[in-house]
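Hello Y.,

Per our agreement to keep a running log of every chain we model this quarter, I'm adding this entry. I've kept the format consistent with earlier entries: sequence first, then predicted structure.
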Amino acid sequence: MIKLLQIEYNKISRYWIFWGMAIILTVGLTTLYWGIEPFINENVKGPSNAPIPIPQFSLYEFPNIWHNLTYLAGMRFFLLFPALLITLIVTNEYTYRTLRQNVIDGLSRNEIVTSKIILVFVISASLVVLLLINGFLLGLSHSKDSSILLVFEKFHYLGAYFLEVFAFGMLALLIGTLVKKALFAIGILLTYSVILEPIAHHYSPEWLQRIFPLAAIGRLIDVPNSGLMRMFGVNFRTYIDFLDVIIVLAWTIIFALLTYLIIRKRDL
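Predicted structure for the entry above:
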């Protein structure tokens, strides 16, 4: 596994587009984490002479911070960004024929697929670590109670966020492997994510809507029940549905198997 990870790192170490997009994503998510609460409070506070003033509320208090931040980071736009990174990396392999060279150098097709899955895993884990660091810093500076039990009470949302990024990344891996051309692969990924599945989901019966891959990914972490939502009498799901986890895991395995079959049958 270390060998495969080293091979993948050597491939992207001088790929400036990857590092540029990675920096943009890191800065964008960090800005979102630190700026969302001040932005919301500033825009919902209402006029100073309002008969019923809207109270300020915190998104950063333990344990709710984990639900709040993972929901924000798991919005479709922010999931698309790492998926585009993965698509570019995979299609770049075909453009420069590095996969063929890997086979010539003795790497098996199983190892090629495994190395790509490891890459998706590392990117997903890196985003979880980024959220974890920012979440701890924000939580510690905004929470009155920072006891161990409270800090880790909703820690499972980080696992759900990892699954969101990883599953979306596996879909991008499959599309990049299938299409091979960067522009076409990105176009298909965006078209499916933004147009095709939402339309199909809208016109499908309720029982079928639940099994659409991106819909299932989006349901893993529901809208948080913040103080603002409760003030208006709106309540959302406060738990992670085990069935949604199973559906997303199933799709992730399907994406991996299809990628393996394509690599196995294709002339690299």
